[in-house]
Protein backbone atom coordinates (compact mmCIF):
# COMPACT_ATOMS: atom_id res chain seq x y z
CA UNK A 1 0.00 0.00 0.00
CA UNK A 2 1.32 3.43 -0.89
CA UNK A 3 -0.23 6.84 -1.42
CA UNK A 4 1.71 9.19 -3.70
CA UNK A 5 0.79 12.84 -3.93
CA UNK A 6 1.61 14.93 -7.03
CA UNK A 7 1.70 18.73 -7.35
CA UNK A 8 1.24 20.51 -10.69
CA UNK A 9 -1.25 17.83 -11.71
CA UNK A 10 -2.41 19.71 -14.83
CA UNK A 11 1.09 20.12 -16.27
CA UNK A 12 2.78 17.83 -18.80
CA UNK A 13 4.47 15.63 -16.20
CA UNK A 14 1.62 15.82 -13.67
CA UNK A 15 -0.85 14.60 -16.30
CA UNK A 16 1.39 11.67 -17.27
CA UNK A 17 1.98 10.71 -13.62
CA UNK A 18 -1.77 10.44 -13.13
CA UNK A 19 -2.08 8.17 -16.20
CA UNK A 20 0.42 5.59 -14.93
CA UNK A 21 -0.66 2.01 -14.34
CA UNK A 22 0.07 1.46 -10.65
CA UNK A 23 1.18 -1.51 -8.57
CA UNK A 24 -1.69 -3.16 -6.68
CA UNK A 25 -2.71 -1.16 -3.62
CA UNK A 26 -1.03 2.05 -4.78
CA UNK A 27 -2.84 5.34 -5.34
CA UNK A 28 -1.68 8.58 -6.91
CA UNK A 29 -3.55 11.75 -6.05
CA UNK A 30 -2.90 14.87 -8.11
CA UNK A 31 -3.38 18.47 -7.03
CA UNK A 32 -3.62 21.22 -9.64
CA UNK A 33 -2.52 24.77 -8.94
CA UNK A 34 -6.17 25.66 -8.15
CA UNK A 35 -6.36 22.79 -5.64
CA UNK A 36 -2.99 23.41 -3.99
CA UNK A 37 -0.76 26.40 -4.71
CA UNK A 38 2.68 25.21 -3.57
CA UNK A 39 3.44 28.69 -2.18
CA UNK A 40 0.58 28.34 0.33
CA UNK A 41 1.59 26.74 3.67
CA UNK A 42 -1.99 25.57 4.37
CA UNK A 43 -2.15 23.88 0.96
CA UNK A 44 1.19 22.20 1.65
CA UNK A 45 -0.17 20.73 4.89
CA UNK A 46 -3.10 19.27 2.92
CA UNK A 47 -0.65 17.79 0.39
CA UNK A 48 1.48 15.88 2.88
CA UNK A 49 -1.36 14.71 5.14
CA UNK A 50 -1.55 10.93 4.84
CA UNK A 51 0.95 10.77 1.96
CA UNK A 52 3.79 8.24 1.73
CA UNK A 53 5.74 10.18 -0.90
CA UNK A 54 5.40 13.57 -2.59
CA UNK A 55 6.32 14.30 -6.22
CA UNK A 56 6.75 17.99 -7.02
CA UNK A 57 5.82 18.38 -10.68
CA UNK A 58 4.72 21.99 -10.25
CA UNK A 59 6.94 24.72 -11.65
CA UNK A 60 7.11 28.04 -13.43
CA UNK A 61 8.32 26.88 -16.88
CA UNK A 62 8.00 29.94 -19.16
CA UNK A 63 11.72 30.39 -19.83
CA UNK A 64 11.60 33.74 -21.64
CA UNK A 65 8.76 35.24 -19.57
CA UNK A 66 10.70 34.43 -16.40
CA UNK A 67 13.17 37.16 -17.37
CA UNK A 68 10.45 39.75 -16.72
CA UNK A 69 8.57 37.83 -13.98
CA UNK A 70 11.57 36.89 -11.88
CA UNK A 71 9.74 37.36 -8.55
CA UNK A 72 7.05 34.83 -9.45
CA UNK A 73 9.56 32.38 -10.94
CA UNK A 74 11.63 32.48 -7.72
CA UNK A 75 8.55 32.06 -5.51
CA UNK A 76 7.44 28.94 -7.39
CA UNK A 77 10.76 27.37 -8.41
CA UNK A 78 13.08 28.41 -5.58
CA UNK A 79 11.09 29.09 -2.39
CA UNK A 80 8.11 26.73 -2.67
CA UNK A 81 10.23 23.57 -3.14
CA UNK A 82 11.93 24.42 0.17
CA UNK A 83 8.54 24.72 1.88
CA UNK A 84 7.44 21.39 0.39
CA UNK A 85 10.67 19.71 1.46
CA UNK A 86 10.37 21.04 5.03
CA UNK A 87 6.78 19.76 5.23
CA UNK A 88 7.94 16.34 3.95
CA UNK A 89 10.63 16.27 6.64
CA UNK A 90 8.06 17.04 9.35
CA UNK A 91 5.69 14.40 7.92
CA UNK A 92 8.54 11.86 7.71
CA UNK A 93 8.12 11.19 3.98
CA UNK A 94 10.51 11.36 1.00
CA UNK A 95 10.09 13.78 -1.91
CA UNK A 96 10.95 13.54 -5.59
CA UNK A 97 11.64 16.98 -7.04
CA UNK A 98 12.04 17.61 -10.77
CA UNK A 99 14.70 19.96 -12.11
CA UNK A 100 16.28 20.93 -15.40
CA UNK A 101 19.29 20.92 -17.72
CA UNK A 102 19.04 24.74 -17.66
CA UNK A 103 20.92 24.76 -14.31
CA UNK A 104 24.05 24.34 -16.49
CA UNK A 105 25.57 26.93 -18.82
CA UNK A 106 26.14 24.41 -21.61
CA UNK A 107 29.85 25.11 -22.02
CA UNK A 108 30.97 21.53 -21.26
CA UNK A 109 32.01 19.46 -24.29
CA UNK A 110 30.58 16.16 -22.98
CA UNK A 111 27.37 15.18 -21.20
CA UNK A 112 26.93 16.73 -17.76
CA UNK A 113 27.26 14.55 -14.68
CA UNK A 114 25.47 15.38 -11.43
CA UNK A 115 28.60 16.73 -9.72
CA UNK A 116 29.42 19.23 -12.48
CA UNK A 117 29.26 22.86 -11.36
CA UNK A 118 25.98 24.61 -12.04
CA UNK A 119 25.93 28.04 -13.74
CA UNK A 120 22.46 28.93 -15.00
CA UNK A 121 22.20 31.44 -17.84
CA UNK A 122 18.73 32.83 -17.11
CA UNK A 123 16.13 33.44 -14.41
CA UNK A 124 14.32 30.12 -14.98
CA UNK A 125 17.53 28.07 -14.60
CA UNK A 126 18.68 30.16 -11.63
CA UNK A 127 15.33 29.77 -9.87
CA UNK A 128 15.36 25.99 -10.43
CA UNK A 129 18.93 25.77 -9.13
CA UNK A 130 17.96 27.61 -5.93
CA UNK A 131 15.00 25.22 -5.61
CA UNK A 132 17.39 22.27 -5.75
CA UNK A 133 19.49 23.82 -2.99
CA UNK A 134 16.43 24.46 -0.82
CA UNK A 135 15.30 20.82 -1.17
CA UNK A 136 18.77 19.50 -0.25
CA UNK A 137 18.90 21.80 2.79
CA UNK A 138 15.44 20.96 4.14
CA UNK A 139 15.13 17.24 3.47
CA UNK A 140 17.66 14.44 3.53
CA UNK A 141 15.23 11.94 1.96
CA UNK A 142 15.01 13.63 -1.43
CA UNK A 143 15.56 12.66 -5.04
CA UNK A 144 16.19 15.59 -7.37
CA UNK A 145 15.68 14.44 -10.95
CA UNK A 146 17.06 16.74 -13.63
CA UNK A 147 15.58 16.21 -17.08
CA UNK A 148 15.46 18.11 -20.40
CA UNK A 149 13.33 19.24 -23.36
CA UNK A 150 10.05 17.78 -22.05
CA UNK A 151 7.08 17.24 -24.36
CA UNK A 152 3.73 15.43 -24.21
CA UNK A 153 0.35 15.34 -25.91
CA UNK A 154 -1.04 17.47 -23.08
CA UNK A 155 0.37 20.95 -22.46
CA UNK A 156 2.62 23.47 -24.18
CA UNK A 157 5.86 22.24 -25.73
CA UNK A 158 8.22 22.43 -28.71
CA UNK A 159 6.57 19.51 -30.57
CA UNK A 160 3.16 21.14 -30.56
CA UNK A 161 4.64 24.55 -31.42
CA UNK A 162 6.40 23.01 -34.45
CA UNK A 163 3.26 21.21 -35.62
CA UNK A 164 1.24 24.40 -35.32
CA UNK A 165 3.83 26.55 -37.12
CA UNK A 166 4.24 23.80 -39.74
CA UNK A 167 0.60 24.05 -40.69
CA UNK A 168 0.79 27.86 -40.90
CA UNK A 169 4.10 28.34 -42.75
CA UNK A 170 6.03 26.91 -45.70
CA UNK A 171 9.42 27.43 -44.03
CA UNK A 172 10.67 27.42 -40.43
CA UNK A 173 14.03 28.46 -39.00
CA UNK A 174 15.28 26.48 -36.00
CA UNK A 175 18.52 26.69 -34.01
CA UNK A 176 21.00 23.90 -34.73
CA UNK A 177 23.72 24.79 -32.19
CA UNK A 178 21.85 23.92 -28.97
CA UNK A 179 22.01 20.20 -28.18
CA UNK A 180 20.02 18.06 -25.76
CA UNK A 181 17.75 15.07 -25.32
CA UNK A 182 14.04 15.56 -26.01
CA UNK A 183 12.28 13.61 -23.25
CA UNK A 184 8.65 12.49 -23.21
CA UNK A 185 6.82 13.39 -20.00
CA UNK A 186 5.36 9.85 -19.97
CA UNK A 187 8.87 8.38 -19.80
CA UNK A 188 9.81 10.68 -16.90
CA UNK A 189 6.61 9.63 -15.13
CA UNK A 190 7.53 5.95 -15.59
CA UNK A 191 11.03 6.67 -14.25
CA UNK A 192 9.56 8.45 -11.22
CA UNK A 193 7.35 5.43 -10.53
CA UNK A 194 10.38 3.11 -10.70
CA UNK A 195 12.27 5.38 -8.30
CA UNK A 196 9.25 5.64 -5.97
CA UNK A 197 8.94 1.84 -5.83
CA UNK A 198 12.57 1.51 -4.78
CA UNK A 199 12.41 4.34 -2.23
CA UNK A 200 9.25 2.94 -0.65
CA UNK A 201 10.81 -0.53 -0.60
CA UNK A 202 13.63 0.86 1.54
CA UNK A 203 16.25 2.18 -0.88
CA UNK A 204 18.30 4.97 0.64
CA UNK A 205 19.83 6.12 -2.65
CA UNK A 206 18.78 9.72 -2.07
CA UNK A 207 20.45 12.55 -3.97
CA UNK A 208 20.60 14.30 -7.32
CA UNK A 209 20.18 12.39 -10.60
CA UNK A 210 19.94 12.98 -14.34
CA UNK A 211 17.22 11.28 -16.37
CA UNK A 212 16.54 11.95 -20.06
CA UNK A 213 15.75 9.91 -23.15
CA UNK A 214 18.68 8.19 -24.86
CA UNK A 215 20.70 10.00 -27.52
CA UNK A 216 21.09 13.69 -28.20
CA UNK A 217 20.04 16.01 -31.03
CA UNK A 218 19.66 19.74 -31.69
CA UNK A 219 16.39 21.67 -31.69
CA UNK A 220 16.76 21.66 -35.49
CA UNK A 221 17.25 17.86 -35.54
CA UNK A 222 14.23 17.51 -33.26
CA UNK A 223 12.10 19.66 -35.60
CA UNK A 224 13.20 17.64 -38.65
CA UNK A 225 12.27 14.39 -36.89
CA UNK A 226 8.87 15.80 -35.90
CA UNK A 227 8.05 16.69 -39.50
CA UNK A 228 9.50 13.44 -40.93
CA UNK A 229 7.15 11.49 -38.66
CA UNK A 230 4.14 13.80 -38.93
CA UNK A 231 4.24 14.41 -42.69
CA UNK A 232 1.84 11.58 -43.67
CA UNK A 233 -0.77 12.85 -41.20
CA UNK A 234 -0.22 16.56 -41.95
CA UNK A 235 -0.19 16.03 -45.70
CA UNK A 236 2.56 18.62 -46.04
CA UNK A 237 6.02 19.36 -44.74
CA UNK A 238 7.63 22.76 -44.19
CA UNK A 239 11.32 23.23 -44.88
CA UNK A 240 13.33 23.62 -41.67
CA UNK A 241 16.37 25.85 -42.03
CA UNK A 242 19.23 25.20 -39.59
CA UNK A 243 20.26 28.51 -38.02
CA UNK A 244 22.70 29.59 -35.29
CA UNK A 245 21.40 30.83 -31.93
CA UNK A 246 22.55 34.33 -32.90
CA UNK A 247 19.91 34.34 -35.67
CA UNK A 248 17.07 33.57 -33.20
CA UNK A 249 17.37 36.11 -30.36
CA UNK A 250 15.33 35.33 -27.23
CA UNK A 251 15.04 37.16 -23.88
CA UNK A 252 16.64 34.20 -22.03
CA UNK A 253 19.92 32.64 -23.08
CA UNK A 254 19.84 28.83 -23.36
CA UNK A 255 22.69 26.30 -22.89
CA UNK A 256 24.49 25.17 -26.07
CA UNK A 257 25.01 21.72 -24.56
CA UNK A 258 22.17 20.28 -22.49
CA UNK A 259 23.23 16.63 -22.66
CA UNK A 260 22.88 14.91 -19.26
CA UNK A 261 24.77 11.73 -18.39
CA UNK A 262 22.20 9.31 -16.91
CA UNK A 263 24.52 6.51 -15.68
CA UNK A 264 23.97 7.36 -12.01
CA UNK A 265 20.18 6.96 -12.07
CA UNK A 266 20.44 3.78 -14.15
CA UNK A 267 22.83 2.25 -11.59
CA UNK A 268 20.76 3.27 -8.56
CA UNK A 269 17.18 2.77 -9.79
CA UNK A 270 17.28 1.13 -13.28
CA UNK A 271 14.27 3.11 -14.57
CA UNK A 272 12.90 2.32 -18.06
CA UNK A 273 14.61 4.48 -20.70
CA UNK A 274 14.04 4.81 -24.46
CA UNK A 275 15.63 6.51 -27.43
CA UNK A 276 14.06 9.95 -27.96
CA UNK A 277 12.91 9.02 -31.50
CA UNK A 278 10.99 5.97 -30.27
CA UNK A 279 9.17 8.01 -27.65
CA UNK A 280 8.52 10.84 -30.12
CA UNK A 281 6.76 8.43 -32.49
CA UNK A 282 4.38 7.37 -29.74
CA UNK A 283 3.59 10.88 -28.51
CA UNK A 284 3.12 12.20 -32.05
CA UNK A 285 0.59 9.45 -32.73
CA UNK A 286 -1.36 10.61 -29.69
CA UNK A 287 -1.16 14.29 -30.63
CA UNK A 288 -2.15 13.71 -34.26
CA UNK A 289 -4.97 11.30 -33.34
CA UNK A 290 -6.52 13.88 -31.04
CA UNK A 291 -5.58 16.95 -33.18
CA UNK A 292 -4.44 18.60 -29.96
CA UNK A 293 -2.22 21.30 -31.45
N1 LIG B 1 8.97 21.61 -19.83
C1 LIG B 1 10.24 21.29 -20.00
O1 LIG B 1 10.77 21.32 -21.12
C2 LIG B 1 11.07 20.88 -18.84
C3 LIG B 1 10.57 20.84 -17.55
N2 LIG B 1 11.39 20.48 -16.50
C4 LIG B 1 10.86 20.44 -15.16
O2 LIG B 1 9.94 19.37 -15.11
C5 LIG B 1 8.88 19.68 -14.19
C6 LIG B 1 7.55 19.50 -14.86
O3 LIG B 1 7.50 20.37 -15.97
P1 LIG B 1 6.27 20.37 -17.01
O4 LIG B 1 5.30 19.33 -16.64
O5 LIG B 1 6.86 20.42 -18.35
O6 LIG B 1 5.70 21.81 -16.67
P2 LIG B 1 4.27 22.45 -17.04
O7 LIG B 1 4.50 23.89 -17.21
O8 LIG B 1 3.62 21.64 -18.10
O9 LIG B 1 3.45 22.18 -15.71
C7 LIG B 1 3.76 22.84 -14.52
C8 LIG B 1 2.50 22.84 -13.69
O10 LIG B 1 2.80 23.52 -12.47
C9 LIG B 1 1.67 24.28 -12.15
N3 LIG B 1 2.02 25.38 -11.25
C10 LIG B 1 2.62 26.56 -11.55
N4 LIG B 1 2.71 27.31 -10.47
C11 LIG B 1 2.16 26.60 -9.45
C12 LIG B 1 1.93 26.87 -8.08
N5 LIG B 1 2.31 28.02 -7.53
N6 LIG B 1 1.34 25.92 -7.32
C13 LIG B 1 0.94 24.75 -7.88
N7 LIG B 1 1.10 24.45 -9.17
C14 LIG B 1 1.71 25.37 -9.94
C15 LIG B 1 1.15 24.81 -13.46
O11 LIG B 1 -0.19 25.19 -13.29
P3 LIG B 1 -0.92 26.15 -14.36
O12 LIG B 1 -1.20 25.23 -15.50
O13 LIG B 1 -2.11 26.61 -13.64
O14 LIG B 1 0.07 27.22 -14.69
C16 LIG B 1 1.32 23.60 -14.35
O15 LIG B 1 0.18 22.79 -14.37
C17 LIG B 1 9.17 21.10 -13.69
O16 LIG B 1 9.88 21.02 -12.49
C18 LIG B 1 10.08 21.68 -14.77
O17 LIG B 1 10.92 22.68 -14.26
C19 LIG B 1 12.69 20.10 -16.68
C20 LIG B 1 13.24 20.10 -17.93
C21 LIG B 1 12.46 20.46 -19.12
C1 LIG C 1 9.60 28.22 -31.92
C2 LIG C 1 11.06 28.24 -32.30
C3 LIG C 1 12.04 28.06 -31.34
N1 LIG C 1 13.34 28.07 -31.67
C4 LIG C 1 14.37 27.84 -30.63
C5 LIG C 1 14.34 28.75 -29.44
C6 LIG C 1 15.05 27.93 -28.40
O1 LIG C 1 16.45 28.09 -28.54
C7 LIG C 1 14.68 26.50 -28.76
C8 LIG C 1 13.63 25.87 -27.86
O2 LIG C 1 12.56 26.73 -27.78
P1 LIG C 1 11.41 26.68 -26.68
O3 LIG C 1 11.22 28.06 -26.21
O4 LIG C 1 10.27 25.93 -27.26
O5 LIG C 1 12.00 25.78 -25.55
P2 LIG C 1 12.38 26.16 -24.07
O6 LIG C 1 11.24 26.82 -23.41
O7 LIG C 1 13.69 26.82 -24.00
O8 LIG C 1 12.52 24.69 -23.49
C9 LIG C 1 13.04 24.52 -22.21
O9 LIG C 1 11.96 24.55 -21.28
C10 LIG C 1 12.39 24.50 -19.94
C11 LIG C 1 11.15 24.51 -19.07
C12 LIG C 1 13.37 23.44 -19.65
O10 LIG C 1 13.53 23.04 -18.50
C13 LIG C 1 14.32 23.01 -20.74
O11 LIG C 1 14.77 21.68 -20.58
C14 LIG C 1 13.77 23.20 -22.12
O12 LIG C 1 12.87 22.17 -22.50
O13 LIG C 1 14.22 26.54 -30.13
C15 LIG C 1 13.73 28.25 -33.01
O14 LIG C 1 14.95 28.27 -33.32
N2 LIG C 1 12.78 28.42 -33.97
C16 LIG C 1 11.44 28.43 -33.67
O15 LIG C 1 10.59 28.62 -34.59
UniProtKB/TrEMBL annotation:
Transferase in keyword set: no
Gene Ontology MF terms: dTDP-4-dehydrorhamnose reductase activity
EC number, UniProt record: 1.1.1.133
Pfam families assigned to the protein according to its UniProt record, in alphabetical order: RmlD_sub_bind (PF04321)
Keyword Cytoplasm among UniProt keywords: no
Needed co-factor(s): Mg(2+)
Function: Catalyzes the reduction of dTDP-6-deoxy-L-lyxo-4-hexulose to yield dTDP-L-rhamnose.
Name of the protein this chain belongs to: dTDP-4-dehydrorhamnose reductase
Species of origin: Oceanibaculum indicum P24
